[in-house]
Amino acid sequence: MPAVSNVLVAGAGLAGTGTAIALAAGNIAVELIDISPAPTALGSGITLQGNALRELRRLGVWDQVRAQGYSFDSLGLRAPDAAGTLLVELPDVRSGGSDLPATVGMPRPALARILLDRAAQAGVKIRFGTAYTELRQDDAGVDVVFADGSVNRYDLVVAADGIRSPTRRLLGITHEVRRTGMGIWRAFGPRPATVTRTDLYYGGPAYIAGYCPTGEDSLYAYIVEDARDHTALTPQQQLATMLELAAAYHGPWDDIRAVLTDPSSVNYTWFETHMLPPPWNRGRVALIGDAAHACPPTLAQGGAQALEDAAVLAELLLQRPVLDDALWAAFTARRFERAKAVVDASNQLAQWLLNHEQGDVPGLAARIAALVSQPA
Ligand SMILES: Cc1cc2nc3c(=O)[nH]c(=O)nc-3n(C[C@H](O)[C@H](O)[C@H](O)COP(=O)(O)OP(=O)(O)OC[C@H]3O[C@@H](n4cnc5c(N)ncnc54)[C@H](O)[C@@H]3O)c2cc1C
């Protein structure tokens, strides 16, 4: 008998859908709720590293991810000069195993759809536009009071409700997220033929300018600068601001600028980070994914770490007979140091850029690639 028989998962992002699918596939009754009225998955594209692909394959969606994404195995570094000179093409580590590509780029809404369809197929009951207002737990379960006043009882609540996690507040956790001082422009658009992998340009008017192909016909492009308040800009002005910064970058960026014409495809976000000290549970309520730890996307590992949390928690819940301190200790042992290493390294990279300091970037990237190449 698994440790739980019915579970409520709050948050239909990568952590929440991953947990819901893995538990439902193990014959646990799972309800998945999300406060948004409908699936949104804002933010254009996502770079999925091999260790994220390994978890997506375990969830049974690799074929769809491969078909709808864009796979590649190298990373280019280019100069912010008039030719966009290619400095080096680095073979990327296949951290998910030699039978998976190093990286897949995907439109975020496509990934969200694939995971939600798989969850429904596995028997997860999915409700959007739903949140809870109160969690009352005792030794045997959690009574969850929903916003419409209804109450239901579960063996476990998994809160995968994102970086601002309302559940942290409900649990009395006062821990706050921190801004890193950087902001990122992201735009989604058609893929020019010259874009076949991620290239990064360090320096120029921004810290990083880069892009990632997300399908035969799509890509996302991004520029990381100092965090600024751009909230007063209209979508048209946002596009113009991003294009103005992008004008300093050449090579494939010349083709990308030419096709970035849709103001509604541009968004601007500040980088934020936090690391919740262990344990990530309070009794029968657990926090995972960005609700427990978040990093600036300098290593593109946040989504992978969210999926790994989901996989490890589901595995322990399915394999162990009781939900006790030993289970939570095993979860901490497998997740805390690994996620912290990724968060710390992502912040270190961001800090070197902010300080205009030449850190050992290849060494740090190799250390994290070796770490995440080991299954979680
Ligand atoms: C600019 C940027 C770029 C990034 N790029 C990458 C990348 O390329 N690769 C990568 O691996 N990672 C990347 N990340 C990180 C990655 O996006 C996150 O780590 C990952 O999406 C976290 O997933 P999650 O499921 O924990 O949280 P989220 O995706 O934030 O999902 C949380 C869900 O909870 C829901 N919710 C909120 N409150 C409630 C509530 N009260 N009740 C119910 N539901 C609720 C929300 O609606 C949401 O659907 C990036 C992050 C940023 C900021």
Q: Quick one: overall form?
A: globular
Count up the helices.
10
Largest sheet: 8 strands, mixed
> Can you give the mean pLDDT?
96
pLDDT < 50 runs, ≥5 residues: none
CATH-defined fold name of the largest domain: FAD/NAD(P)-binding domain
CATH homologous superfamily designation of the largest domain: FAD/NAD(P)-binding domain
* Count of all domains: 2
Give the oligomeric state.
Answer: single chain
Identify every distinct bound molecule in the structure, by name, code or SMILES: flavin-adenine dinucleotide
Word description of this protein:
This protein is α+β, with helices and mostly antiparallel strands and 376 residues long. The protein has two domains: 6-70 and 108-177 and 274-373, FAD/NAD(P)-binding domain (3-Layer(bba) Sandwich), CATH 3.50.50.60; 178-271, D-Amino Acid Oxidase, Chain A, domain 2. The chain contains ten helices and 20 strands. The protein has an eight-stranded mixed sheet, with helices on both faces. A six-stranded mixed sheet has the order 8-2-1-12-19-18, covered by helices on one side. Helix 1 (14-25) runs parallel beside helix 8. It is globular and about 65 Å long. Flavin-adenine dinucleotide binds at residues 10-16, 33-36, 46-47, 52, 131, 160-162, 166, 184, 269, 289-290, 294, 297, 300-304, 306.
